[in-house]
Fold this protein.
Amino acid sequence: MIEVKGLSKKYNKELAVENLDLFVDKGEIAVLVGPNGAGKSTTIKAIAGLLNYEGEILLDSCDNKGVEAKSLLGYIPEMPSPFPLLTIEEHLHYIAKAYGIKDYKDYMEELLKLFNLDDKRDKLGGELSKGMQQKLSICCAILHKPKIILFDEPMIGLDPMAIKEVKRMMKELRDQGASLLVSTHLLDSMEDLWDRILIMKKGKVIFSKSRNELSEGEKLEEIFFEVMEE
Ligand code: ATP
């Protein structure tokens, strides 16, 4: 589970996130939505432990900066940045080494097949298309079977088959008890998946409700516009 308490982040003197609280339970997919500049990526980067900030962030009750929390976490950034001189397969061996996992080869093959990367395994990071980089970024983030996964605009650049696989994978991870936080503007893409909606505006979460707390059949887009217009 993800617990964020009193998160504030300033870039120079500008407050990007202000005293933000957020909670994502085990076995829950939370979508994080909000206008451009609302602070979604900053929040995700803070949870991933990539920024200095004020406040407390716990991942399955562990401080997010510790090694234990890192081993629980998978992060898919907004902009994939593969190592230009490593092949697709070398990226995955490197990640396995970094996380100290040994029995990963079957799962690695499964992921490569799932994303149609198995016949491109010898391509260098610097030779990959945007969509291929995104697929590799997702494979790298979930190879160690994390319990907490942060997705920053995961569907951008993906072909329809890959989108279908990412959605199937999100469901599977949720059903295995993982906590997923997904920032996206593509509300339709998450319509059949979300369990909780978190709406951010000007650095704050202004709305957090689970699907059960809302009227049945209400669409993400409708909820978003209703809240923003209030
Ligand atoms: P988008 O939907 O456009 O991706 P977002 O909700 O993810 O936006 P953030 O990227 O978190 O928003 O940005 C929040 C605020 O922080 C914005 O005002 C932005 O200009 C500012 N900001 C983000 N990154 C930096 C940075 N590295 N340096 C200075 N200001 C930044």
Residues 11, 16, 34, 36-42 surround adenosine-5'-triphosphate (CB under 6 Å). Residues 108 and 143 are 7 Å apart (CA to CA).
